[in-house]
Structures are given as structure tokens and as C-alpha cells.
């Protein structure tokens, strides 16, 4: 039987093995640090006032009041617009929640990440790094062409959650609103036609003479 030739191991001084593992760990940590540095920073999320109930799921509508500011100087670039400001007549109170609706999965990544943590009635401060906002893209005011959000801007949002609505409930309420508006339009058309009929038969007034 042929004996396998073994390469003799170099002697390892006492404690050298520990140093070896510490060196491996240091290299791993350095590599991890490089990988971490290349990843976008996370979204800052602070609960100012706790809400209640479940958090939103993908597809849900979240109605929020919010103010958006630049993290660099605190300049406000946007705020929520209430749907109640343009509510058609005849819509029952409470059918349309206050605030601006956002669908989960249809916002900038950082805002969407924050919405997945909120609860109804809660108030939050959200810090969104540029990498999870608009990145190198600048946002201009469509009316004035003024740059409202410079490229690579970190953003801060103060938000208040008014309502969290499932897709099924959102469709149900939308159908109710559509039905109410159609009925109002039909009633208005009938009223207009009825108002015109007696006007045709009414005697013409005689202009007064001086």
C-alpha cells in the first residue's frame, strides 16, 4: 500500500488561531461595511401619536393629511388637499374621508414604506432619503416651472392618518358616490326642463317707456 505523502503543517504559535479568526472577522466586517455603504439609507419613522387598528396592506387606500418639506432647509414643497373641498352636493357626511388618498404600492418607495407602518388616527414624522424619494430627478411646479424639489433631496413628511380603506370598501363607496351624482344630474335635468315649459307660454312683458 502506497502511503499518501502528507505536507507537514507549519507550527502555529499559541494564540495565533484566535488572531486568525479575528482577522477573518475583520475582513468580513469590512466587506459588510462596504456592502452597507452601497445600500440606500433607511427611512426614518417616528410615531408622534399612536394610532389604533391594523396597518395597511397592498392595495389599501390610506387617507392622510400631510405636509412635505425639504430636509435641508425645512422649506415646504407640498401639503395634502382634502377631497371634501370639492365634494359634490348630496354626498352624505363621512362617505368621503378627509385628506388625500394614497394607494399602497403606488407612491414613492420611502413614502410607501412608511404607510405600511401606520395606523388609523396616528400622527407620524417620516424622513425619506433621496434614494427612496425622487433620486437625481428634480420636481418642478407645473404652473411656475420653479424647482420645488432639487435633485438628490432628502424629504420630511408630517402625516396624520384619517382612514385606512380596503379596495372592496373603496369600490363600494365609489359606486355610491357615482350613483348619487347620476341621480342629482338626472334630477337637475328634469328640473331644468320643467322650468323652461311655463316660460314659453308666459306673456311677454311690455317695455316701459319714459
Overview of the structural elements:
The chain has a domain at 44-170: Chitinase A, domain 3, CATH 3.10.50. The longest helix is centred in the last third of the chain and has 35 residues, at 167-201. A hairpin with a 6-residue loop joins strand 6 (139-140) and strand 7. The protein has helices at 16-38, 109-115, 167-201; strands at 44-49, 61-70, 76-79, 100-103, 123-128, 139-140, 147-149, 155-165. Mean pLDDT is 78; it is low at 1-14, 32-39 and 202-210. It has 3 helices and 8 strands; from the N terminus they run αββββαββββα. It is globular and about 60 Å long. The strands form 2 sheets. Strands 1, 2, 3, 4, 5 and 8 form a 6-stranded antiparallel beta sheet that branches. A two-stranded antiparallel sheet has the order 6-7. It has 210 residues and is an alpha+beta fold. Helices cover 31% and strands 22% of the residues.
Summary of the model, kept short:
The chain has helices at residues 16-38, 109-115, 167-201; strands at residues 44-49, 61-70, 76-79, 100-103, 123-128, 139-140, 147-149, 155-165. It is an alpha+beta fold.
How would you sum up the major sheet? 6 strands, antiparallel
CATH topology group of the domain at 44-170 = Chitinase A, domain 3
CATH class of the domain at 44-170: Alpha Beta
Broad shape: globular
Tell me the helix content: 25-40%
Q: Which regions contain 5 or more consecutive residues with pLDDT less than 50?
A: 1-14, 32-39, 202-210
CATH architecture verdict of the domain at 44-170: Roll
Distance from N terminus to C terminus (CA atoms, Å) equals 142 Å
Secondary-structure element order, as H and E? HEEEEHEEEEH
The average pLDDT is 78
Structural classification: alpha+beta
Note the total helix count: 3
Amino acid at each position: 500500500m502506497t502511503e499518501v505523502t502528507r505536507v507537514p503543517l507549519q507550527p502555529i504559535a499559541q494564540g495565533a488561531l484566535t488572531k486568525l479568526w479575528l482577522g477573518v472577522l475583520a475582513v468580513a466586517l469590512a466587506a459588510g461595511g462596504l456592502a452597507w455603504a452601497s445600500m440606500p439609507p433607511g427611512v426614518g419613522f417616528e410615531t408622534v401619536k399612536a394610532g389604533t387598528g391594523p396597518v395597511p396592506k397592498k392595495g389599501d387606500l390610506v387617507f392622510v393629511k400631510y405636509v412635505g418639506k425639504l430636509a435641508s432647509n425645512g422649506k415646504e414643497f407640498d401639503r395634502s388637499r382634502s377631497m371634501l373641498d370639492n365634494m359634490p352636493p348630496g354626498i352624505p357626511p363621512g362617505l368621503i374621508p378627509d385628506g388625500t388618498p394614497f394607494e399602497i404600492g403606488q407612491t414613492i418607495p420611502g413614502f410607501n414604506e412608511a404607510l405600511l407602518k401606520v395606523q388609523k388616527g396616528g400622527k407620524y414624522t417620516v424622513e425619506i432619503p433621496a434614494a427612496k424619494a425622487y433620486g437625481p430627478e428634480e420636481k418642478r411646479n407645473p404652473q411656475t416651472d420653479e424647482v420645488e424639489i432639487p435633485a438628490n433631496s432628502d424629504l420630511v413628511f408630517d402625516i396624520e392618518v384619517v382612514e385606512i380603506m380596503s379596495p372592496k370598501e373603496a369600490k363600494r363607496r365609489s359606486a355610491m358616490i357615482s350613483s348619487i351624482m347620476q341621480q342629482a344630474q338626472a334630477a337637475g335635468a328634469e328640473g331644468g326642463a320643467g322650468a323652461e315649459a311655463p316660460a314659453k307660454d308666459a306673456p311677454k312683458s311690455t317695455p316701459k317707456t319714459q
